[in-house]
Amino acid sequence: MKSNNWLLILLIVILMIAPLFVAQGAEFGGADGEAEVAITEIQPDYTPWFAPVFEPPSGEIESALFAAQAAAGAAFIAYFFGYKQGQRRRPQS
Amino acid sequence: MHIMEGFLPPLWVALWFAVAIPFWVIGFVQIRRLVAERPETRLLLGLAGAYAFVLSALKMPSVTGSCSHPTGTGLGAILFGPFVMSVLGAIVLLFQALLLAHGGLTTLGANTVSMAIVGPLVAWAIWRSLRGRLPEDGVIFLAATLADLLTYVTTSVQLALAYPDPVGGFMASFIKFGTIFAVTQIPLALSEGLLTVLIFRGLRTNAAAELKTLGVQGA
User: Fold this and answer.
1) A78: distance to nearest CA of chain B, Å?
2) How far is residue B48's CA from residue B68's CA, in Å, rounded to a whole number?
3) Do residue B181 and residue A26 have CB atoms under 8 angstroms apart?
4) Which residue in A46, A53, A66 is closest to B98 by CB distance?
5) SS3 for B134?
6) Which of B12, B60, B99 to mutate against chain A (most A CBs within 10 Å)?
C-alpha cells in the first residue's frame, strides 16, 4: 500500500510535467483568458457590463494572493492530519 | 472555468443565480444541522473546503499549451453531498472574485453551477451508484476526475449558450469553448482523481470515526 502511494504521487508529477514537453514552446497562458478572446471573436462588439471590484495591481501581487490562497488551504489540511494523527497515537488514559 | 466578471449577459446572470440559490439555501441548512448534531465532523467540513481552496489556486500546465486549475470539489461531495459542497465551493469562488479578479460577482451564479453544483453532483452520483461494486479507490478516482472534467464541460455549455456562433450556432461555439476548457482539463482532472484517492486513504487511517458518522465508511 505504501509503495502504491508513492506510485500515485509519481504519476501526478508526471501528469504535471509531461505537458511542458508535449506542448513545447507554447505560451501556457490561462484558459480563462483564452475563453475571453474566443468570446470577442464570436461577438466582436461585446463589452463587459461589470468590472471587477478589485484587481491585483500587478502579476506579482496576483501570484502572491494565489500563493496565500494555496498556503491557507494547505495549512488547514496539514493541521487536520497532524491533529488527527496525534489524537490516534496518543496512548489511552 | 471562471467566467470573467461582466462577461455573461444579464439574462444569463439571472438564470444561473436562479439555479444556484436553491442549492445554497439547502446546503446552508444542511451545514447548520450537521454542525449542531454532529460537531465532531466540523474539522472534516473545514478539510473539504480547504481542499477546494488549495486545488483551485494551483494553475497547472496542460497538453494544449495553456494553463488551468483543478477544482477539488469531488472530495467534499463524497463526504457531505452536493448541497453542502455548493456552499463551500461558492466561498472559494467569492474569495477569488473579490481578491483575485478571477471570475466575478455577476458570474458567481454561473461559476457556482459549474464548479460547485454540477461537479459535486457528478462525484456524488458516481460514488452513490458505483460504491461497493468497484474497488473503493477506483470509485473515488472516477468521481473526483469526472467532477473536475464535467465542471469545465459545464462552463463550455454556459458560454456556448450565451455566445452561439453566428454561423454554426450552439454546437460550433461549444466545440470552440470545449477545446479551450475541457480538453485542457483532461490531464489536470486525472491528477485531481489520483490526489483525491491519496487524501481519502489518509482519511481512512486518521479519521475513520468521522467517516463512519457520515456513512462514508463501513459499507
Assistant:
1) 9
2) 21
3) no
4) A53
5) strand
6) B99
Residue B67: in which H helix or E strand, if any?
strand B66-68
Q: How far apart are CA B58 and CA A6, in angstroms?
A: 21
Tell me the chain B residues in contact with residue A69 when contact means C-beta distances shorter than 8 Å: 53-54, 56-57, 95-96, 100
Quote the crossing angle between the two packed helices B169-178 and B136-162, to the nearest 10°: 130
Q: Compare CB distances from A19 to B2, B63, B199 and report the shortest one's residue.
A: B63
Chain B neighbors of A51, CB-CB under 8 A: 5-6
C-alpha cell recorded at residue B44: 472534516
CA angle B191, B193, B196 (to 5 degrees): 105
Q: Decide if A13 touches B, using CB distance below 8 A.
A: no
Cβ-contact B196, B75 below 8 angstroms: yes
A53, closest residue in chain B (CA to CA) = B98
Closest CA to B75 of B110, B119, B118: B119
Query: Residue B191 CB: number of other CB atoms within 10 A?
Result: 24
Print pLDDT tens along chain B (219 aa).
899 999 999 999 999 999 999 999 999 999 999 999 999 999 999 999 999 999 999 999 999 999 999 999 999 999 999 999 999 999 999 999 999 999 999 999 999 999 999 999 999 999 999 999 999 999 999 999 999 999 999 999 999 999 999 999 999 999 999 999 999 999 999 999 999 999 999 999 999 999 999 999 754
CB A55 within 8 A of CB B98: no
What's the ipTM?
0.92
